[in-house]
Amino acid sequence: MTAPSNRRQLGQQVEQAAARWLEVRGLTLVASNQHAKGGEIDLIMRDGDNLVFVEVRHRRRSDYGHPAETITPAKQRRIIKAARFYLHAHGLSCPCRFDVVGVTGSLPALEFDWIRAAFDAY
Question: What backbone phi and psi angles, to 5 degrees, belong to 42?
Answer without folding.
Answer: -65, -55
